[in-house]
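#structure-requests
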Amino acid sequence: MPFPCHRHVEAKVNTYSMVQFETNRYSVPVKFVGKPVTVRASIDTIDIVLGSEVIATHPRLYGRKQDHLCLDHYLELLLHKPRALDDNTRVFNPSSLPAVYGQYRKGLAQRTPKANKDFVRILLLHRNYPAELVKNAVEMAMAHKVFSYDGVYNFLLQFNTPTHRPSPLRADKLAGLPSVTVDRPDLNRYNVLLQEGGGLS
């Protein structure tokens, strides 16, 4: 097994929630601003480590003065400052998301003043649900013209809830139940009624 080849450098998360390695900068979740971290660099990957936890992973940049930003790292900040989505921030790159997200965001903007906040809350759903399910929920909400975070979340819960199938009772549970026999009715009695004119007219 080859020995892992890494370079370790101590760093600090700056006020923009970024860590510098060589001349390039890499984002980390905003909750770690001001924390001392270790940059673990391999030939193609940058891991940013706090204690024993890897808090961010990026592809390694080999240019100069470049930034690699992850939108997920800034979602809490955008939730409290939703207008930042409209300020041409470098953090938010619409082309990094499926096209339906941009279309849905436009629909939100036409219907609610909370459009940006709702949109950020929808993006936060990716932390707890598979990306494909979230995208399907957005598509379904758009198809039904339901433009709100609650609408998307409702569709997502429907996709994520398995169909309930009752399991058969165990034999030991059936053993204590009384046995009931139901006699089949004699349908000839109804035929007699019909022949005697006692049926419904």
